[in-house]
Specification:
By secondary structure, the chain is an alpha+beta fold. The protein is 20% helix and 27% strand. A 5-stranded antiparallel beta sheet has the order 2-3-4-1-5, with helices on one face. A two-stranded antiparallel ribbon has the order 6-7. Strand 2 and strand 3 form a beta hairpin.
Length: 194
């Protein structure tokens, strides 16, 4: 990466937007009528059907990638920090923790949203989903850099956990007409975007 571009990115680094993700495998195909969706939910933000990727359509079961909300991730990181509060040393993610707390939380929130009448499908909610045969999860402590508009200490959605600034504020993930040129870094010649 050219230094001029890298320097622009470094100048913008501030708070982090943490997320958890889970991979949920069902023993057979679901009847969920979409391949991806965002959710208005306190735990899950987005889900995508892995089987919709080219070359994966014929899998016997069905897998979904589920992404948490930043708020949920901040709550869980506060409960189980990513850094030792005394030394500041990084605490690696534990498979035992990931598959017993955030993995099941994301899976259960997804299943609930699909089967509730007030969930993502509304009146078309499914009555039942196939059996879940595998759940795995991952913590992304720095999944996204904080949006430029929230990159200051007075952001109402910022919390400092174990000395690390996190922010759950959400803005567009890509440039829109409402965004100024300063909100995103882009170099089309290098195909680098932020």
């Amino acid at each position: 990466v050219p230094e001029e571009y890298a320097g622009r990115v470094r100048r913008r680094v501030g708070a982090r937007v943490p997320l958890f993700s889970a991979m949920v495998a069902f023993d057979r195909k679901t009847k969920i009528p979409f391949d991806a969706a965002s959710f208005d939910d306190p735990i899950i933000w987005f889900a995508a059907r892995s089987n919709s990727k080219p070359g994966m359509e014929d899998l016997r079961g069905e897998c979904w990638t589920i992404v948490s909300t930043p708020e949920y991730a901040m709550e869980k990181i506060e409960e189980t920090p990513m850094q030792d509060p005394t030394t500041g040393e990084f605490i690696p993610q534990s498979g035992e923790y990931l598959t017993s707390v955030p993995g099941p939380d994301l899976c259960n929130a997804f299943k609930s949203s699909i089967t509730r009448k007030d969930g993502v499908l509304g009146e078309e909610a499914l009555e039942i989903l196939p059996e879940v045969v595998h759940v795995d999860a991952q913590r992304w402590g720095s999944a996204l850099p904080c949006h430029l508009r929230l990159n200051n200490d007075d952001s109402p959605t910022r919390r400092v956990i174990s000395g690390v600034a996190y922010d759950s504020g959400r803005f567009a993930l890509a440039p829109t007409e409402a965004e100024s040129d300063e909100s995103f870094l882009a170099d089309e010649g290098l195909m680098l975007f932020r």
